Amino acid sequence: MLRRLAAQDEPRLRAVALAAKESLVHIKEIQSVRSAPTPVPAPSARQAQPGPPKRTIYDAETSENLPGKLVRKEGAEPTGDITADEAYDGLGSTHRLYAEVFSRDSIDGSGLPLDASVHYGHLYDNAFWDGQQMVFGDGDGEVFQRFTKSVSVIGHELAHGVTQFTAGLAYRNQAGALNESMSDVFGVLVEQYLKKENAAQASWLIGEGLFTDKVQGAALRSMKAPGTAYDDDVLGKDPQPDSMDTYVRTSADNGGVHINSGIPNRAFYLVSSELGGNAWEAPGQIWYGTLTSGSLPPACTFGKFARTTLATAEELFGAGSAEHDAVRKAWDTVKVKV
């Protein structure tokens, strides 16, 4: 998406193209962080009783110097800057999901403080976890609004930290698509848990509300219907496949990590839809158990991941259970062999 924006040469989109180019400069650096091996905390640390969040928000003041000026610490009153306060609240919502649903003590399982910098760069079209903290751009105002506006995006980026401290999935090809998919899964779960939406009520959109009203699109991605999130003259059409029948083989995007993630995304949606109720309950427990199982190799394939979700479902709910059957059916539907 950013590469397409960077290539625009219409006068009205010059600022957008420049903003996209600036964002792309950081992509390789972010990808290297997501691919770097990280020591996994000891089991005792990961199972520690969750404590309260420890949030600190900084203002980069449109620079790229991190972290920036301190504007809000844990327990302080709102700043009045909607971006800083949305970041603070989004970090809290993410911490709450992991603590209350998965008994996980912050991103690393050991009470990691949650730091974030807002107003990063000039018209910066991205938000990212840099391996240590969250960073939010304000968007270009033409295509993207501020990136703190979507709690699913905040949850998505912080989930890269959880993957970093657990499975350490490589950021390339199918393992990279699974890395992205895990972030989408926990991103929507943060939003659904915050809103108390069950699987039928939820939109299953990642980044809903990020686009300006000039864009023909609802969100960055749809887990319910991959390939339908946007169809716009500038952005093009959402390229995500919804099954292995349309798997995209490409050298771009680290082997299609943001594209082919639509396949495991849809599998999670299908499990949640089949079981009904709250997706953070049985489906979320199966996916979280899989991520933290220690059974996923860094170069994990879709097939290996699917088999591990089946094993986790059996361990948690029993062979032949509704949960086990729903997982098998979902992977069959998206044509991933288990």
Structure description:
It is a single chain. The strands form 3 sheets. This protein has a 5-stranded mixed sheet, covered by helices on one side. A two-stranded antiparallel ribbon has the order 6-7. The chain contains 12 helices and 9 strands. It has 338 residues and is an alpha/beta fold. It has helices at 2-6, 14-25, 27-35, 43-46, 82-102, 151-165, 173-195, 253-256, 262-275, 282-291, 302-317, 322-333, and strands at 55-59, 69-73, 114-118, 127-129, 134-136, 205-206, 221-222, 231-232, 236-237. The model is unreliable at 39-46 (pLDDT under 50). The longest helix has 23 residues, at 173-195. β8 and β9 (236-237) form a beta hairpin.
| Count of DSSP H/I helices | 12
Strand neighbour order, sheet with most strands:
2-1-3-5-4
Q: Which runs of at least 5 residues are low in confidence (pLDDT < 50)?
A: 39-46
Strand content: 5-15%
Task: Report helical residue fraction.
Answer: 40-55%
The whole-number mean of residue pLDDT values reads 92
Please provide the count of β strands.
Answer: 9
Q: What integer value in Å does the Rg equal?
A: 19 Å
Distance between the termini: 32 Å
Q: What is the molecular shape?
A: globular
Report the sheet with the most strands, covering strand number, pairing sense and barrel closure.
5 strands, mixed
Structural class label: alpha/beta
What is the ordering of alpha helices and beta strands? HHHHEEHEEEHHEEEEHHHHH
Key terms:
338 residues, alpha/beta, two-stranded antiparallel sheet, 12 helices
